[in-house]
Known about the structure:
21 helices, 0% strand, mainly alpha
Amino acid sequence: MTNLSKSFFASSAFSLLDWTVMLSCALMFTGFLCSRVFLSVGMIMLICAGFRPHALKEGWRLFRENTFGWLALVFFCFYLISGFWSLDREQWLAAAQIKLPFALMPFALMNLPFDKKRLQVWLISIILVILFAGIAYSSSFLVMQPQRFFSKYHLPSPVGRDYIRFTIALVLAMQMILFVLSKKNQFNIAKPGRILMISWMIIAALYIHVQAAKSGLLCFYLLVAVNVGYRFVRNRQFGLWKALGILLVGVLLLFFSVRFLPSVNNQISRVKNGLAIWQSGDTAKYETNSSIIPRLVSYEAAWKSIQKHPLGGIGAGDWEAAVQHQYELYFPFMKKYRLIPHNQFICTAFLVGIPAAVVLILMVLWPLRRIPDVAVLSTVCIMIAGTMIEAMLEIQYGVFVYLFFILFWLSALRKEPGKTKATGAI
Length: 426
């Protein structure tokens, strides 16, 4: 606290709404790491804060002008109405509940004061502290078992051992840090505070490489490429040599990771091995690879079903039975890895039809049209990567990560009449 300028903290105290927002976010991210109950309670608190009665009129105005919110609502409705043709009503209800935040959170978060600079820096600080606790927990296994550093396997992860969404969340938090550092004059962060943030990014980047989740690594290098490319294009003073220097550091980091981290080397070997098996067409070897082959087979199995049910899909409640049926019919030799399609766009078309997948594409891309900011561009690119290689929105953790970070930027950087447009240059 002492590292921030006096003028920053000389402003009025936080309101009850501000405290509620911070507590809700703290609960959500704590729950994201260790408890779905905390995550649900935090989301409910935040939604209730956004629907406070005296602010409904203003909230409706903001929502009405927010196409993302309408697309999210329509996306939820596809899952909701699929109950009419889903045979397993219990599974359908569970799927609809998971998607319910798409109907409520856009209205709520757009009606909350995320555009207040003081609240932004506190929220980002809370998020960083909680996520760092997750890094510490996961890294503690290296301390207790140093041999894990030389293992080809992933470290145990928080988030229900979901290292994919955890590492993606770390990368998205890095973008928050870049946002704060790029606007240091607005946030008045003193040098020690900036050093702490940079240190956090370095530790998180090293952790992502040791964890060696393909999705996390891909998203990390997307973050670097988008931010460097954006700054080089928008700011001539940045210079070609600076851009090349940062990219060279990234290449060297990847090179040394492959050279000295068995976990990273193993991931690359598995991808190469999987592609070689797929190209050979040797189905007897399909189940020897748990990386690429199961994903590609899941795409083919889902596509055969989509061709039969292009408009409404098989129904959000019947995915388990449908997956088993497709594999028995077309891939009976796959006994171990029978997956829901590991691509959110294909998965949505498989479950609730091609029109829903089109709405999903529009929803994912729309923030780029609304706010041409590097933070939004980077976040959208990372989300596209995540949804391309995982059915990210089919579980509560994925829905939370997607909606919170997208809506945070849409609310924090929203342009009100009479205000100057945020440039977002870093």
